[in-house]
Amino acid sequence: MSPTDDPDDGLRARISRQGEDTFGRIAQELLESPLVSGAISRAFEAREKASQAQEVAMGALNLPSAGDLERLTRRVRSVSQRLEGVEDTLDRVEQRIASAGGAGALEARLGAIEQQLAALATQLSEVAGQMAPPSAVAPKASRTPSRARQAAAAKRAAAAAKKP
Prior knowledge:
With 164 residues, the protein is mainly α. The protein has 3 domains: 10-63; 65-99; 102-164. The chain has 5 helices and no strands. The chain has helices at 7-32, 34-60, 66-99, 102-131, 140-162. Helix 4 (102-131) runs antiparallel to helix 5. The longest helix has 34 residues, at 66-99. It starts with 6 loop residues before the first helix and ends with a helix.
């Protein structure tokens, strides 16, 4: 005779099945009962009213509710994530500046650009002076010093453009 052929195991399984079936029918009948379902819905309504009263009381005492704390926690997480993004971006910018030779190299480059802009401005004013109508040109005596100044400025600009 094997252990599965034991008559006590069969009886135990049959009683267990009957018990489960009975509990299932009882639960089903309770849920279908208008009296029980009404009591359950009133209990949930009472719980909701108690929760609202608790929030009002805590608000009157100027204490945060669990919902307030949860909203605050979500906001702090959001700000933290945004801050991490900003930090990452700043790290990338710092790496780019370092790879470009640092802030000193940028200063030198900006200085060279300013010098080139000054040279271009001088050349532009020379061209504008040459294109001016003859009536707008000053008498010959006053033109000579300005042309000398323009030529000197052009030489300075050319020398500055050759440096970098």
